[in-house]
Structure formats: C-alpha cells, structure tokens
Amino acid sequence: MKFKQAGDNRPELLGKVQEHTPLEFVKRLLKNIDHLLGVVGEQKPESLATYTANLEARYQQLVKTDYVSSKNIDVSPFITELAHLSKFPRLAGVFLNYHFQLLQLPRENEEKNEVIEITHRVFLRSALIPQYINLQVLTKTVARDEAIQIYKRHVTHYVRKRIADQEDLFQTLEELREDSFKTDPENPIWLRVVGEVEAGKLIIRKDCCYWANAIEDLSDSELKYLVCCYGDFESVRTYNKRFKLTMEHTIVAGDPYCDCVYYDTRITKDFTHPPKEFFDSI
Predict the structure, then answer these.
(1) Which candidate, 198, 173, 194, 183, places its Cα nearest to that of 257?
(2) How many whole angstroms separate alpha carbon 209 and alpha carbon 251?
(3) Domain locations in the chain?
(4) pLDDT tier, 68 (very low <50, low <70, confident <90, very high otherwise)
(5) Does the model's pTM come out above 0.85?
(6) DSSP structural state of residue 216
(7) N or C: which end of the chain has fewer CB within 10 A?
(8) Could you report the per-residue pLDDT of 150-204, keeping only the tens digit for each?
(9) Is residue 152 exposed (0-12), middle (13-18) or buried (19+ Cβ within 10 Å)?
(10) How many Cα atoms occupy the beta-carbon half-sphere of 178 within 13 Å?
(11) Within 10 Å of residue 196's Cβ, how many Cβ atoms?
(12) Mind listing the pLDDT tens digit for each residue in 104-132?
C-alpha cells in the first residue's frame, strides 16, 4: 500500500488567538457533566451523592476567584433543563468558577455575554481539563476499573445522542481520504500519513496531536486517553453511520502516533487491526 504525507506539525498554533464566548460554550460542558451524573446514577446509584460531593470539593479546592459572584451570574438558567445537575446547583456554580479560571477570564469585566480573546491552548485546556477532573474524581470515588467502565458508557452514549440526527458527511471512504488532504494555512491539518482505500479500509497514521500538547502537564495518560480519544470510536459515525474505527495507540496515551483504521462496514466485516510493526514501517 502506498502512503502520502498530509498536513503539518505546527505546535506554535496553540498560541493563535481566537474569539470565544464563555457563557455559550460552558453550556455544552454542563450538559456533559449532567449526562455523566445520569450514567453514574444509573450504574452506581449508591455512589452518586458521594461523587457529586467529592467533585464539588475538588473544584472548590482549585478555584481561586469567585467569578459567579463578582459577575452577578445566576446559575439556575444554565441548569434548569438539566435533569441531574439541576439537583446540585453548588456543584454547577463552582464548576463555572473553575472553567472561567481556566479561561483566565478578567474579573473586572462586567459584561456577562462578553466575547473574549484567548489562545487555542487556553481554549483546549478549558474544555479538556474539567473532563479529566470529572473522571479523576470518579476513580477516587469508586474502584478505578469500575469508574472507567462508567465513563466509557457515558462517552459512548453522549456522543451517540449528539450525532443521532446528523447527516453523513461523506458517502465513501474515498471522500474521507480526499478530505484528509485539505488544509488551510491558518488552520492546517495535523501531520499524518494517509494510505489508499483498499477492500473497504482506509489507514491513517497521525503523527502529531495538539490536544496532547495542550494537556501534557496532566500525569495520568490513561485518563487523558479516555477524555481525548475514546469518543472517536463513536464519533467516527459523523463521517458516515456505516463507518467504524479501530485504534490501539494514541499520542495522548504516550505513543509516538495514533494508528487509525477506518472501515466501511457495507464493504468489509474484517476489523483486524494491523500490528504496531506495520505502522512503524510506514
């Protein structure tokens, strides 16, 4: 199989400034927590109260500035329609404070719906670190292997609900392959080598990951993998509901690359993942 390089490795782009509306984005993060609480309550109901208390305590330990009070933010509209988080308004409030702290939000600005300028690194950290903490606290509330299974279930079903009504982006793996070479000088695709579509399979080895760069200071590689990568197995279906992904190594988990194989299940039922030696030799 022939492979062709695409994209570029430009970690300096993490310093690129972008516009961001904090109160709009945080709604998505709160929905994510709400869904996680729902799964914990379903799978481990006897631990839900302890988990929420531990989570609130952990965020409170990390918070240095009370943005919610200083900006006169009413938390209730953010959680009224969230079936699970609405029962824990203090947790929602301290989470908001920590999220704004990660954004390095100016306390003195009185605009509630302000548009701020932040770097891409700050944006990624504001989205990924809270999810890491949510999982980390769960592993300290129940047995680690049990916490991981709960989190996997949460991610799979959360992504599944999010993409349920989305239309397929591509009809074939050939279209996905072609898209892998498209780039924008201001927002280049990550460095990768792309194979040819053969027998309903497309192999792509990704050789850099800006998400991994943004949270390289976090110590638990297994938890980082679950936060950053595990959802890919379900979200691959945003490309096409009949696509499937296998992946055994990721940069976030400490490997030198991400070994991605995309399958069109209408064409193949052989989902045997190539060995590491194959990806090393590309």
Answers:
(1) 194
(2) 7
(3) 4-10+169-281, 15-163
(4) very high
(5) yes
(6) T
(7) N
(8) 999 999 999 999 999 999 999 999 999 999 998 776 666 789 999 999 999 999 9
(9) middle
(10) 7
(11) 14
(12) 887 665 455 678 899 999 999 999 999 99
| Distance between CA atoms of residues 37 and 246, nearest Å | 28
| Amino acid of residue 203 | I
Give the separation between CA 17 and CA 130, rounded to whole angstroms: 21
The angle at the Cα of 256, spanning 263 to 144, to the nearest 5 degrees, equals 80
- DSSP conformational letter for 178: H
Angle formed at CA 252 by CA 249 and CA 255, multiple of 5 degrees: 40
Question: Position of tokens 């950290």?
Answer: 125
37-41 contacts, C-beta under 8 A, 24 or more apart: 37/84, 37/85, 37/88, 38/83, 38/84, 39/150, 39/153, 39/154, 39/157, 40/138, 40/150, 40/154, 41/84
